[in-house]
Design goal:
Elements (H helix, E strand, L loop, with lengths): L6 E8 L7 H22 L4 E6 L2 H9 L11 E7 L2 H8 L2 H9 L10 E7 L3 E2 L2 E2 L13 H5 L18
Antiparallel strand pairs: 1-3, 1-4, 2-3, 5-6
Helix pairs in contact: 1-4
Length: about 160
């Protein structure tokens, strides 16, 4: 069996601008921003790019299930999966990518956005157990391998914390 490679994930959470309905926000983020960004991400070796929408109806579903965790109230979480930070640094310097992010500033409350950088470990894929040995042990790389990272060049920054281009 081949050795598993570490996959990194950058996830950002965003709230829509207060003057937009959920539908208006969704139509822009999914219909324009997501589609155009995906075309650019594919050029830079991003393994996966996806959005998770957290609408009032989804929060109501969670409430009805009495999930005991504090529920995040951001409108969308955007996830990028990649093998190394160089892909993300190169992507951030792309002029078309920068223009799309400046274009979306009126749609989001950038000062309420958050981000996390993580590595991913998959144990169930398409309903099947994966990356678990016949002895029931994880086949994931060691903590030392997963957590060992080299500092990267800074990503391009094209707006301030208040969302000004």
């Amino acid at each position: 069996m081949s050795k598993l490679e570490r996959v990194l994930r950058l996830a950002g959470t965003y709230r829509r601008s207060e003057n937009l309905s959920e539908k208006q926000f969704y139509e822009y983020i999914s219909g324009r921003h997501g589609v155009e960004c995906a075309k650019i991400h594919a050029k830079y070796g991003v393994l996966k790019y996806q959005m998770a929408f957290n609408t009032a109806s989804m929060r109501a579903l969670a409430d009805s299930m009495r999930i005991s965790y504090r529920m995040d109230d951001h409108d969308v979480e955007i996830e990028y999966y990649f093998k190394d930070a160089a892909a993300l640094v190169a992507l951030s310097a792309d002029k078309d990518f920068q223009a799309l992010h400046i274009e979306c500033l009126p749609y989001v409350q950038i000062n309420k956005s958050t981000a996390t950088m993580t590595w991913i470990e998959v144990y169930v894929d398409n309903g099947e157990l994966v990356n678990i040995s016949s002895e029931g042990k994880s086949l994931q790389p060691s903590f030392e391998e997963q957590s060992s990272v080299e500092p990267a060049l800074p990503v391009a920054n094209y707006h301030d914390d208040a969302g000004n281009a």
